[in-house]
Amino acid sequence: MERSLKAGRDTLTRWLIFAVLLLLPGCGGKNQRPQISSTPVATPIVVGTTPVPSGTPTPKNMVDSTAQRELTMKQVAEAIGKARNRFPGNTGIYFIDVESNMSLDYDGDRQFESASLMKMVVIAELYRRIQMGKLELEQPLVLKQHQIVGGSGDLKGQEPGVAFPLRVLAEKMITQSDNTATQMLTDLLTKEALNKSTKNLGLTGTTINRDIYDFAAIDRGQDNYTTAKDMALLMKQLATEELAGSSDIHAILERQQRNDMIGADFPKDVRVAHKTGELTGILHDVGVVYAGKGPYVLAMLSDGVTNKAEAIDTFAQLSKEILTLYQSHSPSPTPSEE
């Protein structure tokens, strides 16, 4: 009887042990499925890092990176606001952090007379034609009498009948802001095609209605216009190599000879690709800057300028202040209080 009870207890013990083992992870007869949360975990994606699969905890460094970027944008916004308050005229400013695509808009859709910024549309269309095989960089273009106009550049001193490669004309149009080179290229491409190009590029506030040095057209109500947002978007397309001939255009813009606003007092190792524009009472500068925290686009347009020297200085200070913010390490953001 005692032996029978002992055998029964042993059998019961073995069954209990077997049941416990079945309940332990990894000891069942089939692979256990992982539990899947019905609520996805929001994972910030930072350019330059490997995205973390949804459903896993967000690494702290990625959260910090996003927070740091937002803090930097807030500091840039403060700098722009102060600059606009002291600027001697009207401004339209648009800023883009290229990597995050965050942007700041201060009257970015306000139209301004484009001055030499229209040359950005010309060079974009020129390289589009070259990429399509309709034109060639070394193709010569003959200077005509009516194309010799005043203002910036040295081609106005040339005689009619002299031929220049398209490559040379594009270089002079941007680096010297040469108006004669601009007129030659405008005649080649046509204003109608340039306006079609602005639409294809998504530049909704940009129009080309007169030749670069035809000021009489202004009295007839015909002028060239653009916006800070349009120019910023065009520069972003350049920085992200979405434009035809981006590499060549970028290199030309980096050789810009006027650097008293964007680029003023910059360290020599900071890459800047930009284009200026100026008429009486009008001052513009738009470009992409490659800083320690990543590339950014700054478009500064203005009119009604009452003090040119002060306006240039204000734009230069703003540009340098933004560069400093993008070169230095931002302090850790203060956690928001719930």
Detailed description of the structure:
The chain has helices at 2-23, 60-86, 118-132, 166-175, 179-189, 191-200, 216-219, 228-239, 246-254, 308-327, and strands spanning 90-97, 103-106, 112-113, 140-142, 163-165, 225-226, 271-279, 282-291, 294-303. The protein is of the alpha+beta class and 338 residues long. Among the domains are: 67-110 and 227-330, Beta-lactamase, CATH 3.40.710; 116-203, no CATH class. Strands 2-1-9-8-7 form a five-stranded antiparallel sheet, sandwiched between helices. Helix 2 (60-86) packs antiparallel against helix 10 (308-327) and helix 4 (166-175) crosses helix 5 (179-189).
Relative strand content: 15-25%
For the biggest β-sheet, the strand order reads: 2-1-9-8-7
Q: How do the helices and strands follow one another from N- to C-terminus? A: HHEEEHEEHHHHEHHEEEH
- Residues in helix, %: 40-55%
Poorly predicted ranges: 1-8, 15-63, 331-338
The CATH class designation of the domain at 67-110 and 227-330 is Alpha Beta
Helical stretch count?
10
| The CATH topology of the domain at 67-110 and 227-330 | Beta-lactamase
Rg, Cα atoms, Å: 30 Å
Q: What's the name of the CATH homologous superfamily of the domain at 67-110 and 227-330?
A: DD-peptidase/beta-lactamase superfamily
Basic shape: globular
Average of the residue pLDDT scores = 85
* Second-tier CATH architecture of the domain at 67-110 and 227-330: 3-Layer(aba) Sandwich
Task: Describe the main β-sheet briefly.
Answer: 5 strands, antiparallel
Structural class: alpha+beta
**Total number of strands:** 9
Distance N terminus to C terminus?
72 Å
